[in-house]
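User: For my dataset I need records formatted as: sequence, then structure tokens, nothing else. Please produce one.
Assistant:
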Amino acid sequence: MKKHLILTLLLSAVAVWGLSAKDYYVADFGAKADGVTLNSASIQAAIDFASANGGGRVVFTPGNWVTGTIYVKDNVTLHLEQGATLLGSTNPWDYTKDPYVGWTSMIFSIKQKNVGITGGGTIDGRGFTTANHMVEYIHRGLFEDPLKLDRPNETNRPENIYFRECDGVTIKDIFLKDPGSWNQTYDQCHNVYVEGITVDSKSYWNNDGIDIVDCEDVVIRNCYIDAADDVFCFKSHSAQHQCKNVLLENCVGRSSANGVKFGTVSKGGFKDFTIRNITIFDTYRSAVTFAAVDGAEIENITVDGLRSIHTGNVIFLRIGERWNKITSGGLSDKDRQTVVRKEPYMRNITIKNVYAEVPLDKPDAGYNYEGPIEDLPRNISPCIIAGIPGYKIENVVMENIEIVYPGGGNPRYAYRGTTPEDLDGIDEMISYYPEFSQWKELPAWGFYLRHATDITLRNFTFHAQKPDYRPAVVCDDVQGLKLEGVVYDEAAAAAGKEQVVLYKSSYAE
């Protein structure tokens, strides 16, 4: 925690430097705030001039400034005054797919120092319109793209922001909306400070809220993000890099995917995270997902203070075996080399002070780009800790947690028993994309644990509002289990119902 405090002070100093540096107004370089003129060249000229002259703020006064791709350079902060809107061009040809990162974006910054975006203004990617224009060009044979499910590849659609290998990044107080792909990506950056931003990122497919990829020393605080895809998404694209020393606090998120997520691309790892005072609501999948399915090392993670309301699942911890080698595009030449993946692990996880309500209905119904209508039958799924044979999830403490489930699991609708044959029959799904619903029916209504060791549930209350045919907790191949102060409150449960089933499992000595 001391390191997080030092980091915050350092990043605050960077932000103050940006506010005190010289101002350069884009209008002085020929840019026009008329909502029509394409200003990419003029804005780039302002950025280049400011950087060459020691740095400063490139200022956008109130108005609508249209742009395609621009690159932020050393010691430059884009400052959007209240009432200023940076409008993404709706012409896909106005954007660059950067050859180094293999992605498309409105705002790039690559291998720069002390860069940022501040102010009370707006960045509006107009991504829905741009993406649909791209679809038209693809159908006409003017643009090469695989067009899966009639939508362009996410790397070809413009993000609002993509910063790669930058040191000293400040993103503060802006409003981000409607990207064509992911909203904002910070990739292999150091000293990243994101505070007070508001995001409306649900105009098109793959609209993540914020993606932190293999970054070190990161603070994200006091943000509100509404996203079609994952909200606070931490990724590891390279087996040679990891996300390390991250503080996420005092944030609110909603998603038609996951709230706080590690992965799904998880080649390197995630270490030394503090996540506190987070609210997730109306979210289709899990409030918290930690996935190590591509060889990631995950350890020393604390979640302290989570409120999950009207969310399809609360906690999903998963180890898998999906990709064996680095083969994906969008990486540096060094990272593209064939490298054997590290063996995955997940350990030293603490999740505490949680209140959650899981609904019976579809939690993101009515939002743009809802999560899919899944194949059924499946009763409501429990929280899940699931390793795989040979790779157990280790040393997890969950305390002061209360989860309200709808209950009502019906064996005539979907059934999974707790006999040895039933439990052994649950597919490991080692190579599957990790989602809590991938197994469909699971044998517990509250918590399902498999291939894990040294798991503690302390002061944990499970509520089921209707009777469920399943027990509250099922453990399969779990050693060192501790259940301390656990309450099973199942409405109208049969007298003497056994709420804990242990199979190939044992309590801690």
